[in-house]
Amino acid sequence: MLKILKYVAAAIAAGLPAGAAFAAWEVNMPVGVTELSREIHGLHMLIFWVCVVIAVLVFSVMIYSIVKFRRSKGAVPATWDHSTKVEVVWTVIPIAILVGMAVPAAETLIKIEDMRDSELTVKVTGYQWQWHYDYLDKGVSFFSRLDRKSDAARQLRSGIDPRTVENYLLEVDNRFVVPVDTKVRVLLTSGDVVHAWWVPEFGLKKDAFPGFITELWFRATRTGVFRGQCAELCGYDHGFMPIVVEVKSKEDFEAWLQEQQATTGTPAAQTAAAPATSQLETDAALTVARAE
Fold it and tell me: pLDDT tens across 154-187, in order?
């Protein structure tokens, strides 16, 4: 038995990547850069270790029983087939474990849906195949689509090596800019088909439906550029609908906002052709009013 375990351990160790490759080989979910993503990661790790403890206990008892009471040792099978005490124990303990796991899970789910006290509200509308960002009550709105370099390189027989394009298929012409340490509420909707707004490092993904408004919130805890994509199959150019969120300091964000407000229509707003959104804007305004 010990020899078999040694051979199995050696085979596993030989199959694992080593050195720098092992360091880059991540199997766990990212911690993320938002308040919610860290809380979700913490919940994930809590449940993971609960499962690890349960697995260790259960398999330890199983392996011990198999080895200790095997036939070659002269073990004699028990003659009973029922025990009320054992049945009560193996019913009560799992229920207690599930209840204990449900409490922190419910707290996190409630926090995810708590849109109160948001400091910035942005309506995000998905179109085939671009995003429209409208900073409500700020007088700033623009379209965000795949940047020209990636768009040119993706064309068949373009002659452009995609490896020479920085952030290929993950860069846009107009970034979604938000301030750090600020609760940002996002109202999601769509002007045509179902889309999904997803930034992995924010820890959240939510669908955008035509004629309906869904919502999510995030509070980025550090500055930087974070990339995502549409995560719902939305047509033949679905793979070319990136999301780029740039988190700035509050001072830099205010400067950017004033610059945008002083501009009489951003380039993206002037060139993009999109369906009328008057009804969607009305729905978004009503949603904001109800929340306030």
Answer: 988 888 888 989 999 999 999 999 999 999 999 9
Determine the Cα–Cα distance for residues 62 and 55; give it in Å rounded to an integer.
10
Give the Cα separation of 56 and 96 in Å (integer).
18
Instruction: Go through the chain and tell me how many residues it has.
Output: 292
| 222 — pLDDT class (breaks 50, 70, 90) | very high
DSSP 173-211: SS-EEEETT--EEEEEEESSS-EEEEEGGGTEEEEE-BT
- Contacts of residue 15, Cβ cutoff 8 Å, sequence gap at least 6: none
pLDDT at 265: 52
Closest CA to 203 of 39, 46, 49: 39
Please state the rounded mean pLDDT for residues 180-205.
94
Angle, nearest 10°, between helix axes 35-68 and 84-112?
Answer: 160
Report the C-alpha gap between 146 and 242 in whole angstroms: 6
Q: Cα(219)–Cα(136) distance, rounded to whole angstroms? A: 18
User: What is the structure's pLDDT at 269?
Assistant: 42
Chain-centre distance of CA 20, in angstroms?
26
If one compares 1 and 198, the residue with the highest pLDDT of the two is: 198
User: Which is it for strands 195-199 and 224-230: parallel, antiparallel or unpaired?
Assistant: antiparallel
* Mean pLDDT over each residue of the chain, to the nearest integer: 83
**Amino acid of residue 125:** T
120-291 has which fold? Answer: Immunoglobulin-like (2.60.40)
Pairing state between β 204-208 and 224-230:
unpaired
Q: Under CATH, to which class is 20-74+85-112 assigned?
A: mainly alpha
CATH 2.60.40.420 range(s) for the chain read 120-291
The confidence score (pLDDT) of residue 76 equals 82
